[in-house]
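User: Hello, can you help with two protein structures?

Assistant: Certainly.
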Amino acid sequence: MEADDVMDLVIRSRRAVLPTGEEPAAVAVRDGRIVGLHAYDAPPAAAEQVDLGGTALLPGLVDTHVHVNEPGRTHWEGFASATRAAAAGGVTTIVDMPLNSLPPTVNVDALAEKRAAAAGRCLVDVGFWGGAIPGNLKDLRPLHEAGVRGFKCFLSPSGVEEFPPLTTGELRAAMAEIASFDGLLIVHAEDPALLGDPSGPGYREFLDSRPGESERRAVERVVALAGETGVRAHILHVSSALCLPPLARARREGVRITAETCPHYLTLTAEEIPEGATQFKCCPPIRSSANRDELWRALADGVLSCVVSDHSPSTPELKVPDFAAAWGGISSLQLGLTAVWTEASRRGHTLEEVVRWMAGNPAALAGLRGKGAIAVGADADLVAFDAEAGHTVDVSLLHHKNPVTPYHGRTLTGVVRTTWLRGRVVDPVVSPARGPAGAGPTGTLL
């Protein structure tokens, strides 16, 4: 056999989740890319053969909503710890949010600082969002040309003073500028006029202070301005079912708008949150069980297209047992796949659907070609996922920097057995990456 016919790696699975569906397959890898899809028992020669049997083979997940916080707030999270957590959870590409780092990624110089902080510290591939804030309209095109995947803005206070929200006029101007180079605007959509201070320390008071109507009204504003300017827009972390009718209507009318939700909105409910358990606090908030059912229906119907973590960690000290005062953010980067699969499988959804929501659609949103699918020509970013195994979450065994998560003690279905990045095993526990002696982090800055 000619040397050119020998693959670097062949992975076989009786449950390979391909763009055509779940089926037995042998995936052939050379030079970090998928070069062939064969029958499960096909005989391509390879330097390494892996037979997963009945363990599912998924494409690496793409999480387009991750707050890494480095530089500036690296004690909250950093590239080394965040990408370890990602790899352990089957996520092979993340896109970092422009806040809560210092400086925020709102100009080219700040992007350079962000890239320098990430260089050589990442176990998975990392892309970057830019920010749209008051006063940086002139920076948007240079950031786009420097490679950011799009621009995040807030319509309500972000929680950090260095990343203020846009007024309606500023939002329209940013949309027009971003549309001029066919960029993407991603929006934290809550109307500040309908937000208030919680009347007490409990979860019910916090939930009442951020009503679903605030999300709906902000979504309607984004839809109207996106239709007016022609910009591509995306609504972040939809928590309220009140947003779904205007989003569905906008899609029917041809407005270029998409929307996402998060594992915590699909798996957790307001009814179950104990008093003082501020590890559950996020903005917008976790809502009722009935609301959760509506979000699942919207995923099935395509009104919501992506499920991403909104991994927004902090130090434990900021999670004081008072919902009015605690930092709002949930750490779930390592747990998103298993949390979503636990609930999805219970509701009759398939691994193929979960892969579409958590890999293919986020990759398409961020323009990440070669990611999110097991396909010839794609990067060999792959995950062995034992879809029947159960595990109980122990926060002390998670890889993100600070031991805070609402999933602690929960029994979830599904275990990530192995993660490959461009055909190389990433082992966040034993070493940065298995390979030649002294091999270091393998992630690429996109």
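That covers the first. Now for the second protein you mentioned:
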Amino acid sequence: MTGNGTGDVAALREEIRRTRVELGETMELLAARADPKALVRHSAEQAKARVREQAALTAARVRGRAAERARLVRAQAYEKGGAVGRNPLPWAAIAAGAVVTVVVLAIVRGRRR
């Protein structure tokens, strides 16, 4: 400190400057919290993220079910292989119908969700 008090004035000015900066930052935070457009934008972004996540999970689940059904149909076709050799037309029609049914069900379920 100096004898004429200029050190105190400089310190006070610096403290006032810091207080103004802190006040400005606080006001910006409060304004951001009270901004309805920003709140709606944030909510919309969260909703989009949830929808994308659900869509990805649903698509994966449908693909898994379709693959499982296809394995089942292939296994059944393999088991019936001997009967197909004797009379192939009815079994081929049944197998084709089963595959078409599985594909149609997968598409319909995919569109519902």
